[in-house]
Amino acid sequence: MNSKLTRRGLIGLSAGAGLAACANPNPVTGKSSSASSTGSFRHGVASGDPFDTSVVLWTRVSSEDDGNADVSWEVSTDPDLENMAASGKATTNKSLDYCVKVIAENLDPGQTYFYRFRIGSAVSPIGRTRTLPRGDTSEIRFAVVSCANWQHGYFNTYDAIAKRAESQPYDALIHLGDYYYEYGPLPTPRLPDRIHDPAKEIITLDDYRRRHAQYRTDAALQSATAAMPLIAVWDDHETSNDSWKTGAQNHQPKTEGDWNERRQAALRAYYEWIPVREPKAGRVRSDIYRNFRFGDLVNLTCVETRLTARAEPIIIESYVDDIVQDGGADRFRESVLYAADREMFGGDQQNFILNSLRQSQSDNVPWRLLANQVIMGRLLTPDFTPYISEEALEKIEVDWPEVRDFLTLSKYNMPVYPDSWDGYPVARESFYAALDTAGINDMLVLTGDAHEFWLNELTSEAGKKVGMELVTSSVSSETLTAYLGDATADHNLLLTKENPDARYYNALQNGFIDLTLKTNSAVVRMMTIDTVLSREYTLSQAAQFTIRKSGGTIKASSPKGLSIAQRALFHGIG
After folding, report:
1. pLDDT for 285-344, tens place per residue?
2. Residue 198: is the preceding peptide bond cis (ω within 30°)?
3. N or C: which end of the chain has fewer CB within 10 A?
4. Among the three residues 99, 131, 163, which one is the final residue of a domain in this structure?
5. If DSSP states are collapsed to H, E and C, what string results for 87-143?
6. What one-character DSSP code corresponds to residue 317?
7. What average pLDDT is seen over the chain?
8. Above pLDDT 70, what percent of the chain?
């Protein structure tokens, strides 16, 4: 999602105990991590892509020379690293940006491990990771995040996750993309110590590496990735805003060069700096879709919706003159929006996803999760014109000159987010039909991108339900309150009311989803951070839902923390 206000931003116009924090003890060592790592390992450690007997371990050597750096690594079953389970050596150098990424193998399933790196006499921080369970599994717990913009504020969300992991460890941190942002400095910095490096939009390999390096100096991010394995997919900002297979909204070939060269530079840096496995034989780096099985309880399929097959997003405002004509909206839907070539997954990826889901169903795994980038649920605009004041328009128009065209179009029930699955309805219907043919109507989709919380039913245009969607708010990227203030809550209610598939919508605060899955139920906790402009923050629970199997699909019930109006809309009243 764009860091500036875009069409998505305006569309949104329409409680647990508080936890104050400023310095997070490292969840592994118990020592304060209010400052990031220093010395030879100043970017900390991370692990990711766990399998039942192996896991990826990552660090970076902070080297100033151009030679090779020989690094040793150790994995143990205890935090003092006395009971060694695996060890090895790796060599890194400038060609790898001095990143170290190894696969620790021959581990035991469902086991917590502790790891560290050494170079000479220097020792890295200790990380904690976990292999996937095998067989009988009673509970799995995830922290689900998206959209961490360095310039928009401190990463208090990561800090809160690391802190919660001290007493209730997570099985994985699921990152749904926008791990960093490619933009240059804000015209007016929000925080003087949060300005992007390099101080320009990143385009080259060196640029992307420097941006990764800057984000990895953050103590909260280091704490979160040291506390649990990371399972990550990218969204658009890991390359460039609103990217698709052959371009991006924020890429101008005349001044920024060839798109494929930029994309390859971004992906090379991503695979260097993120603990993900390299593509399997026959795959290219953009094919990051893959599958994880958590025992007999959860199947998690990570998808790719940006660089593999996605068609160019539609800018609906550019069709305003055609749509406002008699019958123009219907002609636009038929000839543009519903064009048959508006692809999202692509055939190979869709087959991979379907095969993974079918196999999990055949194996009697109760939960089928998709780690997905952009909103999948069907969301159409109500007429916003009675609700947006001239004062608000003038404020928004500074960042989004097309806002008045958007208001004109809102009465025609256009997609809320054309860059999301609503902008690719034929591809979505094809996917839903394939799911229904396979008898899969209980998919639970985890989504990021939008900087807001959603709980959506997933239904075809014919009304056939295929599952539900949980959308998490952002780590730090601006929410709608930056533009609308107190009016945000009322417009959240309006959008929920006008969209039957939306059960809950909250665009008020940053935060994450705490998701616990058991055999017969899943508990969804939408956790919010009250500020990202100070390192002192309060963590609260905005809403809680229970998802259960029912009638061949899944349904949400038992809402907690909702206002009277939100509760009425959740139950379809009003």
Report:
1. 999 999 999 999 999 999 999 999 999 999 999 999 999 999 999 999 999 999 999 999
2. yes
3. C
4. 131
5. EEEEEECHHHCCEEEEEECCCCCCCEEEEEEEECCEECCCEEEECCCCCCCCEEEEE
6. G
7. 92
8. 93
Residue 26 confidence class, pLDDT cut points 50, 70, 90: low
What is the per-residue DSSP string for 252-305? -HHHH--HHHHHHHHHHHHHHHS--PPPPTT--TT---EEEEETTTEEEEE---
pLDDT on residue 93: 95
Query: Please, is 487 exposed, middle or buried when counting C-beta atoms within 10 Å of its C-beta (0-12, 13-18, 19+)?
Result: middle
Residues 461 and 529 placed together within one structural domain of the fold = yes
- Residue by residue, DSSP assigns 421-477 as GGG-HHHHHHHHHHHHHTT---EEEEE-SSSSEEEEEEE-TT--EEEEEEE---SSS
Beta pairing, strands 443-447 & 465-471? parallel
Backbone CA torsion sign across 450, 456, 461, 464: positive
C-alpha torsion angle, residues 334, 337, 341, 344 (rounded to 10): -150
Asked if residue 186 lies in contact with residue 482, where contact means CB atoms within 8 angstroms, the answer is no
Bridge pairing between strands 465-471 and 502-506: unpaired
Which residue in this structure is represented by tokens 């926008």? 178
Measured at the alpha carbon of residue 313, what is the angle toward residues 308 and 318, in degrees to the nearest 5? 165
* Domain housing 406: 7-14+37-50+132-570
* Lookup: tokens for 288: 């990051």
Provide the domain count of the chain. Answer: 2
Q: pLDDT tens-digit profile of 530-547?
A: 999 999 999 999 999 999
On the 0-12 / 13-18 / 19+ scale of CB atoms within 10 A, 566 is: buried
- Residue 80, domain member (yes or no): yes
240 and 210 assigned to the same domain: yes
- Residue 487, pLDDT score: 83
Residue 307 tokens read as: 């660089």
pLDDT above 70 for 11: no
Angle at 468 between CA 465 and CA 472, to 5 degrees: 155
Q: Beta 367-372 vs 298-302: how paired, if at all?
A: parallel
